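Morning!

This is the sequence you dropped in the shared folder:
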Amino acid sequence: MSTTWQILIGNLATVALVISIWAHLYDRLREYSDLQTKLMFGVAMGIGAIASMILSVPVKSGAFLDLRFSLIAISAIFGGPISAFATGVIAIAYRLLQGGAGVFVGVIGMVIVAIIGIGARVLVRGRVITLIDIAVLSTTVGIALLVTIVAVSGQGDATTFSHVVLPAVLLNSLAIVIAGLVLLQFRRIAFERDLLTAALTQMPDFHYVKNRESEFVIVNRKMAAHNHFTSPADMVGMTDFNLTSKRRAETLYFEEQELMRSGAAQIDKVEFLREGEDERWYSATKVPLRDRQGSIIGMAGVTRDITEERQVEQELLRSRNTLSHAMAGMSDGFAMFDQLGRLVFCNAQYSNLFPLSGALRVAGSNIKDILRKVVETNERRGLPTHSTEEWIEHAAADLHRDKDEEIDLHDGRWLSLRTRLTADGMAIVVVSDVTIMKQAEQSLRTVADQMKYLAETDGLTGTVNRRALDAAIATELAYSITNRTSLSMLMIDIDRFKLYNDTYGHLAGDQCLKTVSDCLRDVVRRDTDVVARFGGEEFVVLLPATDEVRALEVACAFRSRLNGLYLPHSASEFGHVTVSIGVATRNSHAPEITASRLLKEADQALYSAKRNGRDQVAVSEGAAVAEKYAS
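The structure's back. Tokens below.
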């Protein structure tokens, strides 16, 4: 082997050493930003390039061949322009210090390689660098170096080419491949390590690893936070003696030492702890850790807080006990049918629950015969009057599947039938009399309807309240837009109502509100119309499928009817209780409108009626209509 090859191979070892050192240092640079890391990577590759140039092969005075180009290319493709710039500046600066006849060729070569590396970086952006990318970069750099050295330096004789140029080009290409392989492998390992670390530290349960002395080696964030530490690293080296009572720490220590001695895992051990006034349940799983030789070197554990699960279990247990007591006073029927629909077994309760077909509900009977008897006696309500055989066939076939159903008997009782299939195809049917529960369900539904009525009704006037009105407006407005129908709204305000309260008192004021609302309901009679108390002395009437003309007729009819009552109001300029009414209408052909806009238009119309003297009706289009419908 020639001296040139020997020096360049030694140079190759230097490149490998630089890459290896960086790979081992990378893990210590996690706290730095991506920009800082790339810059340090470029500096490291630049230092490696200087080391390579120190071990270079002198070709002639001032001309050297080395592997600096490989480090520049690696810096560019793995670190991007920032790293490439840092490496190039350092390498070029050192080469300029060396001087000599080959400075120009060397600088040109470094610039070209940096450009090629940055171009490769741009091409692989957005995806993971692969070995093929490294091979393409290696080949491209090799060709570029070969062309640059021969073209610029003019060294084209066979001896120089074979003994100097060719070794330098080949080993630079080889160095790129080797360095790329090392960095790719390291990146893969680092990614897997980061993935495992992230999974461990971010798991919702308490994860930890201990050595043979039961000292914490690794804990996740949840474990650290539970023990009031800001960082998992703060717990490294600690034992349970630093975290809990001496007695419990001793118990844990001896259990873990026995686990690591015997090699037997501890699976889902449940422990109850009282933490101040809080009671918690935990489930711990611990397994021994072995090295490649099979020796136990520590243990890994995961502890889950199962307090909520325990509470649910206890609640379920209490519910089951309550249900058991309730079921003790009930007579459930039990029956088992084979694959052919024959009744294999049933208890007396099963037959007794079906008084009209009970005589056939005995072992040996076929489900079709039983169902035929049910049809003949009308034991169940809702059975088809025609095609009964078709229904019987369908019901018999439906027997062999898991289902829950309720049937209504002729005597008003309700039965719950729960059918479950066994592994061998048998059908097990449990029948319960749920009449009481059905009645209770109906009572609850009635109560719920009553509560809904109370929740949606104004307590004083009995009209719809504001919350129910908002829902009604949204529903009717959507219907109006979808079906292109008119929707009108009346906003009504009792004139001088504050003076009425001041004059006659609040009890009289409440009675006045009731009288006005009763009068309003006498005029607005359609089931689809909504009469609501909007607040204080204001009422709103929602009139679906009503155009402006009809809405004005309703408004004027109400105003006339109220005036006809002539409720005394000495503080009013009219001498009796009057109302002002604003009308807003969304015509069927009008564009979409929001609920708030419709309310605003009605309110503006009401304001117009108030402004023009009260005791009148106004529409949102202007005062002209208001005057038309005033008394």
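Headline: The mean pLDDT is 83.

More detail when I'm at my desk.
O.
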